[in-house]
Design brief:
Layout (H helix, E strand, L loop, with lengths): L2 H13 L2 H5 L7 H11 L8 H16 L4 H15 L2 H34 L10 H8 L10 H5 L8 H8 L7
Helix pairs in contact: 1-5, 3-6, 4-5, 4-6
Amino acid sequence: MTYAQRFKIDEFLNRINYEKIYELPYGNKPLMVASHARNSTTTIPKLTGFSLLKWNVKLEAHRLGGIDESIIHSVTKLIWNLKLSISQRNQFITLANDANDINDRVLFINNTDTINRIIQIDSSQETNSPFESNFFNGSKFNDDNDNFNSLTLPLGFQYDSYHSYNQLFKLDQNI
């Protein structure tokens, strides 16, 4: 680290409002934190206590102006390792974990909804060849004239698409 970088870090540390830095984001409301994480990027990030603290440092850097990302990261590391108590760190970590649990449930529900919508598609695509038909419309393995059972499954095993699907993909409706 150069002398100039160390000077910028020290200057930033001296100007920070530590009360704002130590506050849990969004008033310690996991739903709000989870929503912010989902809406701030195209992919839902896994939050950590450190990343939540970094949100606060970024807000403070924005308030003070002229602070680049490398300084923000270095200052966040210093505050996380040297200035926060263990209980403060644990509060940030707990909030991040709670928000991650919410986002995991939202992602699961969105994926389940997408799968259910795909299953409900009942119109087939018109094609010119069996290959195209299988590609766009999928293969049907439960037809009586299909040799799927005899060609791919162990002797005596019968494929039952309805029961197999329900056993493999039981979805928890309580979420």
